[in-house]
Amino acid sequence: MNNIQETKNLYLLDRNVIDLIKDLNSGKHITCNKKILMKNFLSEIDVETSSISPILSLVEGQKGRSETFLEKYSVTKKETCEINNYFKRAKTDKEYMHANILDFSKTFTESRESGWDNLEKFLVYSCKLIGGGVEKGKRQYVKEKIFACSAYNNIPKTHLAVVLSLASLYGSEAAIKVLKPSKIESVLYNVINDIYVLSRVNLIRAIALSQNMLGVNIQYITRDEGLQKVLSCIQVVSVELSENGVQQNIKYRKELFPHLTRGEYIMLLEELCS
């Protein structure tokens, strides 16, 4: 990205924001109040000290499944142009992405996070446990089943997928909106990408820190209210690069578990870390 040293805020756009930008570029009349608010926000961040990137959306793609090389190439070419055409003052990564489009398309066609297949199995199972809600007397049993399934699939208790399953069990509407347990098998790819948003953003934060970009504020911008609420309930304490990508120290706030008392919440956190 050009002149990144002049950037104060790096905004990473979700696909639903890019879709709105496409509509705005095409001249479509926007009447939805929430879309108008996002449009106003995009105007506010269109300043010289902002950098805008669709990279996380491009990694996910637009098909709701793994994409072919040509599909990844095409969406990268088109959407970086859409972003560049919309913002008049903010910097975009169009030139960088176009210069590296072959490597980017190849990498994100052939590679994805380790443990993806196990995460699919875990989510299908855990969502069947929590789908439709769980009465209070059965929550302890379901929690133990969730932990057993995570262990069987080699997924740490502290993994966001596990925590969101527990949050759904303990009454978080935001977590339920993200997991969509009643239809998980049909939306599995998109749900997993939402779960990985946090670690992907933190990877970018860790890279920025490793390059001494200490003054750059990195924000993920989405119109998904469930995902936005979930992210607001997670405190990122620290991030750093590791051999496996990113080492992240995060804390899950009480708001993510509305059915738990303060004492029960503390006990759950202790259980997650055990």
Quick overview:
By secondary structure, the chain is of the alpha/beta class. The protein has helices at 15-25, 33-44, 55-60, 69-86, 94-99, 101-110, 116-130, 139-152, 160-169, 173-179, 184-210, 225-232, 262-272; strands at residues 9-13, 50-53, 91-92, 217-221, 234-242, 245-252. Helices cover 57% and strands 12% of the residues.
Report on this model:
This protein is an alpha/beta fold and 274 residues long. The protein has helices spanning 15-25, 33-44, 55-60, 69-86, 94-99, 101-110, 116-130, 139-152, 160-169, 173-179, 184-210, 225-232, 262-272, and strands spanning 9-13, 50-53, 91-92, 217-221, 234-242, 245-252. The protein contains 13 helices and six strands. It has a four-stranded parallel sheet with strand order 3-2-1-4. Strand 5 (234-242) and strand 6 (245-252) form a beta hairpin. Helix 1 packs across helix 4.
Keywords:
274 residues, alpha/beta, four-stranded parallel β-sheet, two-stranded antiparallel sheet, 12% strand, globular
Structural topology:
Elements: E1 9-13, H1 15-25, H2 33-44, E2 50-53, H3 55-60, H4 69-86, E3 91-92, H5 94-99, H6 101-110, H7 116-130, H8 139-152, H9 160-169, H10 173-179, H11 184-210, E4 217-221, H12 225-232, E5 234-242, E6 245-252, H13 262-272
Parallel strand pairs: 1-2, 1-4, 2-3
Antiparallel strand pairs: 5-6
Helix pairs in contact: 1-4, 4-6, 7-8, 7-9, 7-11, 8-9, 9-10, 10-12
